[in-house]
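During the first year of the project, the team set up a workflow for recording each protein of interest as an amino acid sequence followed immediately by a discrete structure-token representation. This format lets reviewers and collaborators read both layers of information side by side without switching files. As required by the reporting guidelines, we include two representative entries from the current panel. The first entry is reproduced here exactly as it appears in our internal archive.
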Amino acid sequence: MKRFVLSLLAFLVGVALPLPGAFAGQIDLVSRYIWRGFDLLPDNHAAIQPSLTFDFGESGFSLNIWSSFALAQRELFKYSDEIDVTLSYAFKVPEGWGLTAGFTNYGYWFANDFKFNNNISQEVYAMVAKTDLPLSPQLSAYYDFNLGSGLYVTLGGSHELKVNERLSVELGGVIGFNSRQYIDKTGFSNIDFYASVPLTVGKLLLTPSLNVTIPLLDEVNEGMEIWFGFSTVI
């Protein structure tokens, strides 16, 4: 299975290399892997999450390969390691608007007794943003039609506070609405807040962040989650 995954990644990169565009790499370290309110590494374990994005020039398309690997108790959590592939398209819209749609294939390739129906899931999504309004509001919808088999919708916004010419703080938040995606209920599921400080060091962009998730459904999470992140853009 590992050989298959490596072959898949090599194929995707090989397809992208001859095409006009640009690569962007990113490595995130998170003290907890919180996703849509869920703690995906139970008991609050850290993870490293590298990703690679290829922008296909002016076509509007981009390809992202994202992964997550637990940093502790590898014997227990190695089967939860994840490699996802997302193809997205950014529509040409009037200034002040943003509209993106895409498809994500979630892959838990290292699971015990791996089977495509049990360890692979697909999701379609769309995002619309109004970037010239206060807080730059963004509405997103995600529909999983395999493992999650449900709808997840978010409404969020962010604001940049300028400290000085070289330093700024980004504050943001989002509220999530879950309609039977990985749970048996429908309702507002979580509220997330974050504060991040982008720092430029040479050619690197380093961004430490503080994140808070407040669960609204016990089926998603029974307690508030607070975790730290550190992102490096290469």
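The second entry, processed by the same pipeline in the following quarter, appears below.
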Amino acid sequence: METNEVLVLLLIAAAVIIIVLKNRVDRLSRDMHGQATALFNTWKQREYDTVRREQSEVARREAASELRRWRLDAEKEIRRDAVTRSQAVTVGKVTEHIAPYLPEFGFNPKDARFIGSPVDFVVFDGLNDQAVVQVVFVEVKAGSSALNARERQVRDAVKAGRVRWEELRVPSELAT
């Protein structure tokens, strides 16, 4: 064999070796690229989860702080409202009891009987003079307060004339 032929064979062998090595390098490169991509994606997901957890914790702390601040503000307002309502209820109850002595009452205070619920008074107009002229149901309201549902029902029954007299006789053996 001639030197040229040997050189051609060596070149062909070198080319084959280079092609084989290039294929191996390409395969290794793809494998390394796949591994690098997998590692990067794993790192990226961990970072994402960490940032998300941190942001969630920050949001929770901020929400808890806002809730505490709101509670303090709301508690002051709730207490103020409770005091105002309590005062209104107390004024209303006192007003109910002194109503027969107010000039606007319009009936003899001695004719009025306090019931409290569902109406405040039943007035037996003329009772003190020994001559009852009428029986009047009176509900006392202070300020802008309105009748509740039960008071409206009593009012409507009276206005519709759904009022009657009943007499209950207790057996004499129970009366002694």
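For the second entry, the following points were noted during internal review. Residues 1-101 form one domain. The chain has a mean pLDDT of 91. Both points are flagged for discussion at the upcoming steering committee meeting.
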